[in-house]
TrEMBL record, chain A:
GO terms for cellular component: GPI-anchor transamidase complex. Keywords: Endoplasmic reticulum, Glycoprotein, GPI-anchor biosynthesis, Membrane, Transmembrane, Transmembrane helix. This is GPI transamidase component. The keyword Protein transport does not apply. The gene is GPI17. Pfam families: PIG-S. It is a multi-pass membrane protein.
TrEMBL record, chain B:
The chain crosses the membrane at residues 7-25, 73-94, 115-134, 170-190, 202-223, 235-258, 270-288, 333-356, 368-392. It is found in: Endoplasmic reticulum membrane. Keywords: Endoplasmic reticulum, GPI-anchor biosynthesis, Membrane, Transmembrane, Transmembrane helix. This is Phosphatidylinositol glycan anchor biosynthesis class U protein. Its main location: endoplasmic reticulum. It is a multi-pass membrane protein. The keyword Membrane applies. GO terms for biological process: attachment of GPI anchor to protein; GPI anchor biosynthetic process. Coiled coil: none annotated. Belongs to the PIGU family. One of its GO terms (cellular component) is GPI-anchor transamidase complex.
Length: 595, 411
């Protein structure tokens, strides 16, 4: 490179050269024409450098930093913008009570609930449903004209449609002859039946009522775990999410909030929730589920898994599709042996069972030989393994607990399927869908706990509702903290580029975070989750923008290494020739002045 | 008459040699087509064939030309076409030589101008140059560009500036970089025009005319491409974008590919700008310094392009080596011919070997091949610099005849 460049400016120099034969003889002076030409040549190189090179340099090395609403992002991360609240709407149906009586009961129950509740972010709001005796009870909650006890008069009815989802319906029914009230939760609907003793129903004038207290306690019990989880999520977001505090104002509001939530969580519960949270999977918009059949022998070699999945598993996946999407595939592996580190099952003659040691459970999955690939689909993979032991070693259970299924944190679940009865021999080669059913039910439970659903209450719709709320909350917090981290990164690293895509992702995130927060306030939890999901995806997209990350590891001193080859061979001849030329001009001017 | 017979013999023997190579060794064209020294991503014949279906990477106007050829006759007809192109180039060289521009231009006449090769010898040096033959067999599209450049020069020295500008427009349309030849070619056209007329025409007016003809020619070709590609402008990015942005880093004999493989992503654009400015930076200075000999400016620029352009191949070198024999009279003034020729031979022989070691044998790495392309470029730049020196010394001896034959020392 240098060679070519040198050829230009230097060519003029040998004009003043002399031959060695008469070295002492001074060379004739350069002609003014050649001096002028040389000046023009140097000028032409410098013109290219200054007129084209300089703009190119400025244009190509300038870092494009899109404007980000830093303060808003930090406010979100600090929890200043949004204090998530979870107002749960509970409808009380009291078909056998007079309306004023019922309203009074509701009011008193609400008071009792408010007294019981320590955690203000998550509270239950009661309202009275007007229902008619003639209606089918089963549908009463669906078709009733609702009287807005908590919110307002009937005039708002039109626009409250869909504004809040009902978390639970409490149906009060008198139960003549019983001594105490009792409550019964329907396991497949969101209904709590309360059977009360007739004389417990309060009169309008009384200020306290055992029935009201009973209902309040029951409700509190039902939602205790959810409250604990929500409190836990909010608390851990407060303690973990702000490691990089930029704004020295370590927001007194959040500190106060933290101490308050600390108070509301006893350490034992917190520890339990901790272990639950580590078990559950990190949120992903899509999970892949692999259901595998492993057997140490040649049978069963087929299973009616498609039918079984369609009947027992897909309905669950459909009902949680609002939280995440799932893709499912299945596989069968015959002659699947244990890994050598696992002790082979031992026979317990007393109980006539084969047992596995509990400490071997973690090594039960033979990762080396069983084809359980860590990631097949778009998202993280959950593995559900159905293990059918050999006839000679069945029934096979875990020693001690005698359980036949267990969870592997962050990975999946295992069920050992022992042939239940003698007629299994009839159809040994094929597992019928009926025999897979219990395993699939276990898998469903395991799936729910992987997603972070609570164990109580025992009603699936309620669990799913809870899941919706806690997912919305955790996504809201995680997207907010991602925003905070992004803001922090952009402030801390002034040399990284911020492309427009990041700025638009941030705008989308903040917009959806706002909608999430509003939806949570108004009790529209499905809506909140939907917005929170978009916010999370956009936040991640913005934070992990590829063109931004590349520059992070490029310190300024590396730039010297990049520019040095340029400054050396190209810069030196250019600068030297320019200096020489300028000196000549100066000298000739000085010589011209006196003369 | 004598000249014509010699010309006929030369052309027929050159064509016969190529025919033999094409048809007696049927695998040779395909082999050479795949060589990185001959085919770059922008000029590869293989890609041209693909482009017949995909319409990318090559300037679109070439595609209909090849699309006219029936597939069954594709191979022999393209062979014929490339042989014809070589002969056309040789014909152009003969005309340039006969114009005598290299020995005596309007503003400068070399004292050595009689020591020259005749036009047939210059054409023979082109036609029997192994680089030219390999290029012809390898069929890269750069042959079209080379031919257009040679014809632009021919038209200029024949006093037809308008056709010269149109042809340069075609060359620039095909490969972009010939546009840098515009300033020296304008000087050349102007000089020839001024020599033929008694009073020199107005410089600014002629320049403006030439530039507008050149731009009109390019605009016309671009318009034609747009019509042929169905009104889409996407070919612009996929043809000229490739030259400017270097997205394809397939190894070639040039210096760009390795540099941009190693370059940090964030500085890629900056160094693309630097490399292109480096390529263009010589134009102005050479035109100023060698104002008296614009044809030599063009020759030197062709040499610089063969070294520093984004996707160089030996076809660019063969073009430079085609122009160099016009300056036979300065050869005695060159100081490092042996060194330069030895370097080039060395690189020519070792280049394919190192490429084989890297790509096929796996016993070498990219540095092997890059090192040899550096040697190749060193040899070429040696020739460029040395010939430049020789021409300047030739000029200087006109100024100071007493220094003739004496050594030069920088003081």
């Amino acid at each position: 490179m240098a060679q070519g460049i040198d050829a230009g400016p230097e060519d003029a120099n040998f004009k003043v050269a002399s031959s060695p034969a008469n070295a002492q003889k001074q060379p004739p002076p350069e002609s003014p024409k050649s001096i002028k030409t040389r000046g023009f040549v140097i000028l032409s190189f410098w013109a290219v450098v200054l007129l084209l090179g300089l703009p190119v340099w400025l244009w190509t090395t300038s870092i494009h930093r899109a404007r980000l609403p830093l303060q808003h992002m930090l406010d979100w991360a600090d929890g200043k913008t949004c204090k998530p609240t979870f107002p749960l709407q509970i409808t009380i149906e009291a078909p056998f009570l007079q309306e004023p009586e019922a309203a009074h009961l509701v009011r008193m129950t609400q008071h009792a609930l408010d007294d019981l509740n320590e955690f203000s972010a998550h509270h239950l709001r009661l309202r009275l449903a007007k229902s008619f005796l003639s209606r089918d009870f089963q549908n009463a909650s669906m078709t009733s004209i609702e009287d807005e006890y908590a919110i307002g008069p009937l005039t708002q009815f039109g626009n409250t449609d869909g504004l809040d989802e009902e978390a639970l319906t409490v149906r009060l029914q008198p139960q003549p002859g019983a001594q105490t009230a009792r409550a019964e939760l329907q396991s497949h609907s969101t209904r709590l039946d309360v059977f009360y003793v007739s004389h417990q129903s309060p009169s309008v004038s009384s200020s306290s009522s055992t029935l009201a207290t009973f209902i309040a306690t029951k409700l509190q019990e039902l939602f205790a775990e959810e409250q604990a989880i929500v409190a836990y999520i909010l608390q851990s977001a407060q303690t973990m999410g702000h490691a990089p505090q930029i704004s020295s104002s370590a927001s007194s509001a959040s500190r106060e909030f933290r101490s308050r939530s600390h108070r509301s969580l006893n350490p034992e519960l917190a520890a339990r929730l901790d272990s639950r949270m580590t078990r559950s999977l990190k949120y992903a918009p899509t999970y892949h589920i692999t259901v595998s059949l492993f057997t140490p022998s040649a049978a069963p070699s087929s299973w009616e898994i498609e039918l079984a999945l369609a009947e027992y598993f897909t309905p669950l996946l459909d009902s949680i599709s609002g939280v995440s999407n799932f893709t499912v595939d299945t596989q069968v592996q015959l002659y699947a042996t244990f890994s050598p580190s696992v002790h082979s099952p031992e026979y317990d003659a007393e109980q006539q069972i084969w047992t596995l040691r509990e400490e071997d459970l973690s090594g039960f999955i033979n990762a080396a030989e069983w084809p359980l690939s860590p990631s097949i689909g778009a998202g993280p993979t959950l593995n559900f393994v159905l293990y059918v032991p050999d006839r000679s070693t069945s029934p096979l259970v875990v020693r001690g607990s005698q359980a036949s299924s267990w969870l592997i944190p962050q990975w999946g679940g295992v069920v050992i399927l022992n042939p239940q009865n003698a007629n299994a021999t009839l159809n040994e080669a094929t597992l019928l869908k009926e025999s897979i059913q219990p395993a699939l039910l276990t898998f469903s439970h395991q799936l729910l706990s992987f997603l972070g659903a609570p164990q109580t209450p025992p009603s699936l719709p309620l669990q799913l509702q809870t899941l919706t709320r806690i997912r919305a909350a955790s996504l809201l917090l995680s997207a907010s903290s991602t925003m905070g981290s992004l803001a922090w990164v952009t402030v801390a690293l002034p040399s990284i580029a911020i492309p427009e895509t990041v700025s638009s992702a941030v705008d989308t995130t903040l917009g959806h975070l706002r909608s999430t927060c509003e939806a949570l306030k108004e009790g529209r939890f499905k809506d909140a989750l939907e917005n929170a999901r978009i916010a999370e995806i956009q936040a991640e997209k913005g934070f992990f923008e590829k063109s931004m990350v590349g520059q992070v590891y490029f310190p300024d001193e590396h730039k010297v290494a990049v520019y040095l080859p340029l400054l050396g061979p190209v810069g030196v001849p250019l600068v030297m020739s320019a200096l020489k030329e300028l000196r000549r001009l100066w000298a000739s001017r000085k010589a011209g002045q006196p003369g | 008459m004598v000249i014509d017979r010699r010309k006929a013999i030369l052309f027929s023997s050159a064509a016969a040699l190529r025919f033999i190579l094409f048809f007696a060794f049927p695998s040779l064209p395909d082999l050479l087509t795949g060589r990185v020294e001959i085919s770059t991503p922008v000029t590869s014949f293989k890609r041209l064939q693909e482009g017949l279906f995909l319409y990318t990477h090559n300037a679109p106007l070439l595609l209909p030309l090849f699309a006219l050829v029936p597939p069954s006759l594709f191979s022999p007809l393209t062979a014929l076409l490339y042989i014809l192109l070589d002969l056309l180039c040789a014909n152009a060289l003969i005309k340039i030589t006969e114009s005598g521009e290299s020995g005596s231009s309007r503003l400068f006449t070399s004292p050595r101008k009689d020591m020259k090769w005749d036009s047939i010898a210059v054409a023979a040096a082109y036609l029997f140059n192994p680089f030219t033959i390999a290029t012809c067999i390898g069929r890269p599209t750069s042959v079209f560009t080379n031919c257009a450049i040679l014809y632009a020069i021919t038209q200029a020295v024949s006093g037809k500036p308008i056709t010269s500008m149109l042809t340069l427009g075609l060359a620039s349309y095909l490969s972009l970089y010939p546009a840098l030849l515009l300033p020296p070619l304008i000087l050349l056209c102007y000089d020839r025009k001024a020599r033929d007329t008694k009073t020199p025409p107005a410089a600014t007016f002629s320049t403006a005319t030439f530039v507008s003809v050149f731009s009109a020619s390019i605009a016309w070709f671009l318009y034609l491409s747009k019509v042929l590609t169905g009104g889409s402008s996407e070919y612009l990015a996929s043809t000229y974008g490739v030259h400017l942005l270097l997205p394809d880093l397939t190894p070639n004999v040039g210096l760009w590919w390795y540099f941009f493989i190693e370059m940090f992503d964030s500085f890629r654009e900056f160094f693309l700008g630097v490399f292109w400015l480096h390529l263009g930076g010589y134009v102005g200075a050479l035109c100023i310094r060698l104002r008296t000999q614009p044809l030599f400016v063009i020759t030197t620029l062709l040499g610089i392009f063969a070294i520093f352009k984004p996707y160089p191949s030996i076809s660019d070198t063969s073009l430079y080596f085609a122009m160099l024999p016009l300056y036979r009279h300065i050869f005695p003034l060159m100081r490092y011919t042996f060194f330069a020729m030895a370097t080039i031979l060395y690189a020519t022989l070792l280049g394919p070997a190192f490429y084989y070691l890297w790509i096929y044998a796996g016993s070498g790495n990219a540095n092997f091949f890059y090192a040899i392309t550096l040697v190749w470029s060193l040899g070429l730049s040696e020739i460029v610099a040395d010939s430049l020196f020789a021409v300047l010394r030739d000029e200087w001896e006109v100024e100071r005849p007493e220094m003739k034959g004496k050594d030069i020392r920088q003081i």
